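To: structure subgroup
Subject: Chain for Friday's discussion

All,

I'm putting the inputs and outputs inline so they're searchable in the archive.
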Amino acid sequence: MIASALALAFVVYSCKGNLTEAEKLDLDQTPLQTVDDMFFVRTENGRLTMRVESPRMEVYEHDTVAFDLFPKGIRIYGYSEEGLLETTIVARQARHDKNHRGKGELWSAFGNVVVKNIVKMETMETDTLYWDGAAKEIWTDCYVKMYSPSGHMQGYGMRSDEMARNAILLKPFDNEFIIENDSTRVVIDSVNFIGPLLKK
């Protein structure tokens, strides 16, 4: 009787040790869908407002959590009301929460985040950036470097509208605004360049 019980226990234990690949999966850590060379555009009334590109997108949906991961980097292009490319955001990784805390979508970008407003010729560099689609603003609490044609500055924390038109550095370093006025500098917007100017 004891020998039969030991044999049965051994068989049950052995079967538990031989899990299939499906049983080994942790569904909370496994994407439901992956998309390589992802590309999508967003429009409003037929006007292009945003373009997003990424080498890889992973879709996660579990119970009340739904988000997309971009583990190999992301590029976001924002267009002005006139249809011109105005803002670009590049990051090493990103996450898109589809219903963040029940308040709508939230985008998060991580690792060497660079935001450029091409029209104003301004650039921001930071490690982490957030974008609230409903509030139409971007922000960070991390270290930020900001460059513009008139100079550059640095500090901690930044708030701006989503097109990076009115960026405000929350805690700038004292006396760190460096003015770079070069009257001979010529700047060409190569992204929206449509050809040479004609003589009148």
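Points worth raising on Friday:
Residues 2-17 form the longest helix (16 residues).
The chain has two helices and twelve strands.

D.
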